[in-house]
Amino acid sequence: QVQLVESGGGLVQPGGSLRLSCVVPRSIASINVMGWYRQAPGKQREVVAVIPSGGITTYVDSVKGRFTISRDNANTMYLQMNSLKPEDTAVYYCYVYADRRNYWGQGTQVTVSS
Predict the structure, then answer these.
(1) Residue 16: helix, strand or coil by DSSP?
(2) Which residue has the higher pLDDT, 28 or 16?
């Protein structure tokens, strides 16, 4: 089963920064949507940011102005997270919708704590 490969999580103090990376295998073509989700303990998974193909990048209100989603030409997607808050603590998952299929990363833990 094809899976996205994430990296970059960890423990950071409030106000700090982290950058998550997600490598999308080249076997996945015709990408329609790329994005990041997160799931905090006891909560449902929520969308953080998405890049629709040919569309406008969107963010959940709680991260606007602090997080930036991007991708490079080498099929790698990033989530730059600045001014992190304790409520950003969650497992973060990268996501791709392509060829009528959903692809997920394995998840990476982000903990914001002093």
Answers:
(1) coil
(2) 16
